[in-house]
Amino acid sequence: MHMQSPPVNSLSLDFLTELCISLEKLEMDKGCRGLIITSVLSNQPKVFSAGLDILEMYGKSPEHCGEFWKVVQEMWLKFYGSNMGSSPAGGCLLSLTCDYRIMADNPRYTIGLNETQLGIVAPFWFKETMVNTVGHRNTEVALQLGLLYKPAEALKIGLVDQLVPEDQVFTVASQTMTKWLTIPGNVSVITTKSTLNLLFSFQLWCFNLV
Ligand SMILES: CCCCC/C=C\C/C=C\C=C\CC(=O)SCCNC(=O)CCNC(=O)[C@H](O)C(C)(C)COP(=O)(O)OP(=O)(O)OC[C@H]1O[C@@H](n2cnc3c(N)ncnc32)[C@H](O)[C@@H]1OP(=O)(O)O
């Protein structure tokens, strides 16, 4: 899936709605077993996603805000696999929801949950998704300081799984996907994934988020 919503793939209500509809269609397609999501913006350096569209969170009606927040949560529940450039805040969440993250090795790109730098708080389920990926201590430091990591730093703490030269991102993503798809049977993979997320799913249920 190629994201192309200039200038920076910010996650607006319209963009997220379209994304969720596309994901739902893929989920229902029995022939689809994996998804690589990437940005095809023409800007250089490339942005994966600038995160939530800031304009959606300012001066809007409570109904609009409710609708927006609901679709943010839907997006978070659905993702699979990704490759990317810059991914601040919601862009980082988008990639954290994936099973494997491949980042272009360009020090001009950054990834992280930088909410505190913006004077806002990363919701608890952003935080939990980060803890599940990089552990509690790394999350504590990252979230309190609102850190945006360069590729080498992100790899070091496990925020991304692999760095590759910029022109090879999609090729490596395709090779990685091929490897993941050699695991036989959707059921065992889905069940394993659900088991890994069991505690988190329970927490979300307690907070009435699913
Ligand atoms: C509705 C109820 C909500 C309740 C919410 C409650 C709690 C939620 C709490 C927190 C949740 C936070 C999650 C988020 O995702 S907040 C968004 C955080 N995003 C950022 O901090 C990214 C900011 N952007 C950047 O760092 C750079 O733009 C970027 C590195 C992505 C790209 O840099 P580049 O130099 O290429 O481009 P720019 O010139 O900076 O930008 C071009 C253009 O795009 C506009 N823009 C950038 N980011 C956003 C954005 N997130 N939303 C909307 N628009 C964005 C930027 O303003 C420029 O526009 P223009 O000036 O050309 O018109």
TrEMBL record:
Record's CDD domains? crotonase-like
Keywords from UniProt, A to Z, are: Isomerase
Q: Which InterPro entries match?
A: ClpP/crotonase-like_dom_sf, Enoyl-CoA_hydra/iso
Domain of life, per UniProt, equals: Eukaryota
Gene Ontology molecular functions: isomerase activity
**Pfam families per record:** ECH_1
Protein's recorded name: Dodecenoyl-CoA isomerase
The species this protein was found in: Goodea atripinnis
Report the gene name.
Answer: ECI1
